Amino acid sequence: MTLIEILDILNARVLTHPVTLQKTVDNAYCADLMSDVLSFSITKSLLVTGLTNAQVIRTAEMAAIEVIIFIQGKRPESQTIKLAEEKHIPLLVTDLSMFDTCGRLYERGLRSQVHHLNQSPIETCRTKSL
Amino acid sequence: MNDVEEGFFFLTGKDFTNAGVASSSLKGVLERRGVQQDIIRRTAIAAFEAEMNVIIYAVAGMMKYRITDTEICVTIQDMGQGIPNIELAMTEGYSTAPDYIREMGFGSGMGLPNIKKSTDKLVVSSVVGEGTTLELVIFLKKEE
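Structure tokens for the assembled complex are given below, as produced in the milestone run.
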């Protein structure tokens, strides 16, 4: 899915310049917890989040996330936008909610092909936390 | 390439503005060396989580790296409160982070588990009241 399509589907605006509108993403992931984002290995992906601090940009940089979209019209501070521009990570903003943002992208064919960094011991984790 | 590259970065506790700068610089070093993308990502994720731990919990710390032909070693040492129960801290979802850290998107109890998942070797040593040292090793894939 290209940035142009995403902008159109979500009625979104671009916050960073310059931006390559032909840029494409193959996967999407949504989270407000950055450690959740870091627990997956996803390439050419879009992050949908309601968090707008600089750590989101850093997380995207480390996890090789290529595009970030902020929901509900949330705009990061200008310093954060500047950091994203330095790291060549396009930032978009939509007025839609998290649910609608993900729903519309899913409806149009975008999927989340995430794989854990290795076999995540979810069962072990459950028994441990009990 | 058969040279060994070493370096270090200072980390300051509660300095959220510069949180991530060290890991970002390390990522840059690996990119310049032409390290494989997935290895860069795993190293960057592990280093970043470890760096955030220092920023969140410690007074100060240092990230040292040593890159050889076969592996990337990153040591993150801090002067902080230490971890009383390392096994508990390694449990996914276990966290002692205050609310303002959670509001920043961290402190969900996935830091150390994420570091473990991203690395080939992880040694955590900690003394309560003194600090914590993490030694991470990521192998550079050769003929495997």
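Chain A has a mean pLDDT of 87. The domain at 3-129 of chain A is CATH 3.40.1390.20 (Udp-n-acetylmuramoylalanyl-d-glutamate--2,6- Diaminopimelate Ligase; Chain: A, domain 1). Further analysis is deferred to the final report.
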